[in-house]
Recover the amino acids of this structure.
């Protein structure tokens, strides 16, 4: 089972480079970093990606590339994350092979089951809460996490509007981990933000184990 408690996605910032963002997120305890920038050329993605992969490798953090299994292969990244309109999982597997990570964004039970059946390593369920990044999308809420956990065996990573104030609810609802953008890479103090989220996740899981709390999927 993949360990993806805290999965951080990069964001464009004027004050911090991607290398600085990723370095700080790794030091804060990120389990995986997804490099995402749809406006960069392939050459630039490869140039930056190579540096980010090195940073992640030094901290033993998974390095995931957004959307592009071909570039992930070129970089020998740990894997790729796909949206519903990107290349299908089965073709990403043809490019990357069976050993690499292939994550898929989903927003419904049917998409989750299909993603697992096609070979997804994990699913990114979103948006759980309202978020300006997905302003056009209605929040799914917490209950769908347990519903999907009943039907799939791969890790379910909750995405969308997750903060230090609601992350415990998300974990108690059954999520295996959370994925964030603004709450870590978009924060003023990336290291502290990552540490706080990681600590809250661990504390919640310890509390659940101690009290015998049953996740909603059970």
């Amino acid at each position: 089972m993949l360990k993806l408690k805290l999965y951080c996605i990069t964001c464009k910032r004027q004050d911090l480079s991607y290398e600085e963002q990723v370095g700080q997120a790794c030091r804060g305890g990120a389990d995986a970093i997804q490099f995402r920038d749809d406006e960069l050329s392939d050459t630039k993605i490869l140039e930056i990606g190579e540096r980010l992969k090195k940073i992640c490798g030094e901290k033993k953090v998974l390095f995931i590339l957004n959307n592009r299994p071909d570039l992930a292969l070129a970089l020998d990244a740990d894997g790729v994350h796909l949206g519903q309109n990107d290349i299908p999982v089965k073709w990403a597997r043809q490019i990357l092979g069976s050993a690499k990570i292939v994550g898929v964004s989903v927003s419904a039970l049917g998409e989750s089951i299909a993603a697992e059946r096609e070979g997804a390593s994990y699913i990114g369920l979103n948006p759980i809460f309202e978020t300006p990044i997905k302003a056009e999308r209605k929040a799914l809420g917490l209950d769908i996490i347990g519903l999907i956990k009943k039907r799939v065996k791969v890790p379910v990573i909750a995405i969308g509007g997750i903060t230090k104030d609601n992350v415990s609810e998300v974990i108690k609802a059954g999520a295996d981990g959370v994925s964030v953008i603004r709450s870590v890479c978009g924060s003023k103090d990336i290291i502290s933000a990552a540490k706080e989220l990681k600590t809250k996740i661990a504390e919640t899981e310890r509390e659940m184990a101690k009290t015998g709390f049953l996740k909603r999927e059970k």
